[in-house]
Amino acid sequence: MSAAKNKHNTEDYLRMYKQMVRIRAFEDNANQLYLSAKMPGLTHMYSGQEAVAVGICEALTDEDRITSTHRGHGHCVAKGADFKAMFCELLGKAEGYCRGKGGSMHIADQSHGNLGANAIVGGSMGIATGAALSAKRLGKDFVTVCFFGDGATAQGLWYEVMNMAALWKLPVIYACENNGYSEYTKTEEIAAGSLTARAEAFGIEAFDVDGQDVLAVNELTRQLTERCRNGEGPFFIELDTYRYHGHHVGDINRDYYRSKGEEAEWKTVRDPITNFGKWLIDQKIMTADELVVIDNEISADAQAAVEYALKARYPDGSEVDMHVFAGVDHALEYLGGAR
Amino acid sequence: MTREITLSKAVNEAIAEEMRRDPTVFLIGEDVAEAGTPFKVLSGLVEEFGTDRVIDTPISEPGFMGIAVGAAMTGSRPIVDLMFGDFLYLVMDQLCNQAAKTHYMSGGKLKVPLVLRTNMGATRRSAAQHSQSLQAIVAHIPGLKVAMPSSAYEAKGLMKTAIRDDNPVVIFEDKLMYQDKAPVPEEEYLIPFGEAKIKRDGRDITLVATSSMVQVAEEAATTLAAEGISAEVIDPRTIVPLDEQTIINSVRKTSRAIVIDEGHQSYGVTAEIAARINEKAFYHLDAPVIRMGAMDVPVPFSPALEDLTVPTAEGVVENARKICRGELVHAA
To answer: Which DSSP letter does residue A114 get?
Structure first.
């Protein structure tokens, strides 16, 4: 990591550290909720990839948009979401971001520009590109970042929308989090050639960055968002990172596709939070004790939010046919065919 | 003042008026600008609104459909032009998994105000991949509204309503009707969704028909009238939402019904409407409700075969005669 630039950045560094710790704390609690059978369904852990979401989202404003993925809790937290409303959503409660209708794979937080997670791999690539088209057409200066994984690069939709984004010079950044695995398969087995070369084939400037280095990710994203606002988009970033858990929380025995040794190495040598914490101490921005205080505060916040969500009420049954259509209170009545 | 204009012109006027009224409306699709689509429905719009609002795309249906969804979620009101209804299969994920579900999945926070205008209708000798009528497939998906104009008048009024709607709306235009003329007011009007139109009053049998099948039903009704059978013709205009009440009221009066739509008969629009009649007017019925959809085969190329696959006025007359005489159409 590079040296700290000046004191002015101290607040930024601290916020980045906190946001990464918040994501890890959120995921640790979500995993526990699954393991203790308190959470309906499954979820996909973001742990290990925190520097990607935080490095990027800390370069964005609330007006800037993101689209997220099935592995989306990190993006949601990094874009400014609140623990309570997120845990409520994970548990299907009425106070969740989507009133319990979306769950882990569909959390959207419009107030911070999160257009939503998406359970179709690559499903949001068109949405992100369309948001960028809106910005350009309507004369707004927001930038859209499209998060997706290495697995999604196998979807044809990406090539269609990159082509149009390049033709129309749209303010969109395609951010590919290459965590090495497309579900249960090594990326090298599903991706021929180079990912950056694929973007470059459309005349899109492409970058490869260490996704475990929050400062490197943040610095690059700041440059690219600025250039997007100046009409120089689109851009592509490949971020090399690693997911600590399996494809989803239930993917426990995974020796058949990756070794415990490999996992241990990433966790001990390349952990984005540990390494950034050390850097903050080395640069004399924070002391080890101060970081522990932050960690503990966040951990307590997360646990309090979990407790709150566990006690929160489920949506009333009458909500089941609400929000099917905008402007229609109850869809069944509207559609006729009442049952 | 009312004048006669083609269905094509009616659609063009509706879009132009809404684009003048609302700068967030734009058109996107293949060959929509200078070409004005292969059917020339959009001719002249690019001259007035420019390529910034009449956007030609590469041949990438899932791509521009997805882009429209994202644009709709962020303050725009896109009108997506899908050159042939058959290409719906290419955009299914973006339409059915994304556009249709976003409002619901977000608990009502995000909206997707977009119009997908496409077409339907066989007998153009275009074979199996350019002739399908796929309205049942989208009508099956909660979160999508579906309009099926039966004339230039409906085409204009429904299009304007669709553009102002805050939800994804799919409009099917019958491509054989683009040159059909009908009286259309010069003054502005909108047609609300979910309001059927009684095209002809009758006592003995109800003919519920969509899109170009309304013409088929009206022709059949004229023939039947000469034989002393009085047929009521109802055009639902939108199949989602469906004006069930108007249909049920009619069948309670006539006690007989035939439902006609150009989509495949099995699991189709005709089946849905027939089922609702059975559920809500059963004790008023004197005969089984008859479905008349397209034959359950891929649309063949040869005119000798293709013409056999679509409902005709003669077919409607024949079925109506039988059930009005108390004979079963499908005797065991």
So the answer is: B
Which residues of chain A fall short of a pLDDT of 70? Answer: 1-8, 337-339
Name residue B331's amino acid. Answer: A
Give the pLDDT confidence score for residue B10 in this predicted structure. Answer: 98
State whether A161 and B103 contact (CB < 8 Å): no
Rg of chain B in Å (alpha carbons) = 20
Spell out which residues of chain B touch residue A97, defining contact as CB-CB under 8 Å: 106-107, 109
Instruction: Enumerate the active-site residues of B.
Output: 61, 130
Contacts of B293-298 with CB under 8 Å at 24 or more apart are: B293/B260, B293/B261, B293/B262, B293/B263, B293/B264, B293/B265, B293/B266, B293/B268, B293/B269, B294/B122, B294/B133, B294/B262, B294/B263, B294/B264, B294/B265, B295/B264, B295/B265, B296/B264, B296/B265, B296/B266, B298/B128
Nearest by Cα to B166 from A328, A95, A292, A266:
A328
CB atoms inside a 10 Å sphere around CB A80: 15
Tokens of B77: 């009101």
* Omega prior to B241 cis, within 30 of 0: yes
pLDDT tens by residue, B136-173: 999 999 999 999 999 999 999 999 999 999 999 999 99
Element (H, E) at B178: none
Domains of chain A: 7-335 (3.40.50.970)
B52-67 per-position pLDDT tens digit: 999 999 999 999 999 9
* ipTM of the shown complex: 0.95
Answer yes or no: pTM beyond 0.90.
yes
* Cβ pair A123:B241 closer than 8 A: no
Residue contact A161–B66, C-beta within 8 A: yes
- Here the tokens at position B238 are 């939108």
Q: Give me the domains of chain B, ranges plus CATH numbers.
A: 2-185 (3.40.50.970), 197-324 (3.40.50.920)
